[in-house]
């Protein structure tokens, strides 16, 4: 029995890492720039590290359900960072310097990012309060997903603008060409 549990956890850990790499690759395909992709990619480990702390505070262990919750949350934790970064880029295209664009872009998108994050967390929070066997299994899952998306909002509103303010301006694209 112990071997089956170890294999299940190992498979979930692999899915977590592979899902994170795929998410970063998809972001790179759409952004086509390395530095913004790295800024967005930084949200994944930081949100998950915060989630490890949350799991520890609540007395849960790293098991299949908590790791599965983190795996599911990988795609969601980068959403806030993408939203904030894209709005900062829009402000930079308006001619603002990097710091002002980071401040204005983050301030203008904070409410929308918070609304999106808390709506996702609201879907998973009620699972925490389930009772019985279902509550024992899914409570950890719900806390992990809800906690990681809320932590990702904090990361997106603090780390993303800080890193974006240090990012050089994008190079102009050649007219009509593929960049």
* Main β-sheet description: none
Structural class: mainly alpha
Q: What form results from the Cα inertia axes?
A: elongated
What share of the residues does DSSP label as strand, in percent?
under 5%
Low-confidence stretches: none
User: What's the number of extended β-strand segments?
Assistant: 0
Oligomer: single chain
Which sequence of SSEs, written as H and E, runs from N to C?
Answer: HHHHH
Helix content: over 70%
Overall pLDDT confidence: 83
- Cα-atom radius of gyration: 18 Å
Number of helices: 5
Distance between the termini: 53 Å
Describe the fold and architecture:
This protein has 5 helices and no strands. It has helices spanning 2-31, 34-57, 64-93, 98-128, 132-165. The radius of gyration is 18 Å and the shape is elongated. By secondary structure, the chain is mainly α.
Structural features:
179 residues; mainly alpha; 5 helices; 83% helix; elongated
SSE blueprint:
Layout: H1 2-31, H2 34-57, H3 64-93, H4 98-128, H5 132-165
Helix pairs in contact: 1-2, 1-3, 2-3, 2-5, 3-4, 3-5, 4-5
Concise description?
The protein is 83% helix and 0% strand. The chain is an all-alpha fold. The radius of gyration is 18 Å and the shape is elongated.
């Amino acid at each position: 029995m112990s071997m089956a549990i170890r294999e299940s956890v190992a498979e979930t850990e692999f899915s977590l890492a592979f899902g994170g790499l795929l998410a970063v690759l998809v972001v790179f395909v759409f952004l086509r720039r390395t530095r913004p992709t790295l800024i967005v990619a930084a949200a994944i480990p930081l949100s998950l590290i915060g989630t490890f702390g949350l799991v520890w505070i609540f007395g849960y262990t790293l098991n299949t359900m908590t790791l599965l919750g983190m795996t599911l949350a990988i795609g969601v934790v980068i959403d806030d960072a993408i939203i904030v970064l894209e709005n900062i880029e829009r402000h930079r295209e308006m001619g603002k310097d990097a710091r002002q664009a980071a401040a204005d872009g983050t301030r203008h998108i904070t409410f929308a990012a918070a609304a999106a994050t808390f709506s996702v967390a609201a879907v998973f929070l009620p699972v925490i309060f389930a009772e019985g066997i279902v509550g024992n299994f899914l409570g950890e899952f719900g806390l992990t997903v809800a906690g990681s998306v809320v932590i990702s909002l904090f990361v997106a509103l603090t780390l993303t603008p800080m890193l974006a303010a240090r990012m050089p301006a994008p190079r102009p694209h050649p007219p009509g060409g593929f960049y």
